[in-house]
Amino acid sequence: MSPILQAVNETPLHVLLRRRETLLVQGCGELCCEDGEVWLTEAGSNRDCILSPGDRWPLQQGLEVALSSLAGARLSLASVP
């Protein structure tokens, strides 16, 4: 797993997580689940969150977030004005 950094960009970065794939994200902006379900774990937190289609999660600068999907999911990462 390698961290992915979201640069400041008006165009969202679209990501497809395959079945049982995990991705580490670090940066700031907003994560949006477009399809499927995503298990989200934020570094330093003792709780996890499941994102369903339409759910959003704010990414905080400097915090690493692990994203996993058991059945596959489509996400977008975008900067927040």
Describe this structure in words.
- About 0% of the residues lie in helices and about 60% in strands.
- It has about 80 residues and is mainly beta.
- The strands form two sheets. A five-stranded mixed β-sheet has the order 1-3-8-5-6, with no helix packed on it. Strands 2-9-4-7 form a four-stranded antiparallel β-sheet, with no helix packed on it.
- Strand 5 (about 40) and strand 6 (about 50) form a beta hairpin.
- The model has no long low-confidence stretch (mean pLDDT about 85).
Q: How far apart lie the N and C ends? A: 29 Å
According to DSSP, the number of beta strands is: 9
Query: Helices and strands, in N-to-C order?
Result: EEEEEEEEE
Most strands sheet:
5 strands, mixed
**Mean pLDDT value:** 86
Judged by helices, strands and strand pairing, the structural class is: mainly beta
How are the strands of the biggest sheet laid out side by side?
1-3-8-5-6
Number of helices: 0
Rough shape? Answer: globular
Relative helix content? under 10%
Beta-strand residue fraction:
over 45%
From the alpha carbons, calculate the radius of gyration and give it in angstroms: 11 Å
Low-confidence stretches: none
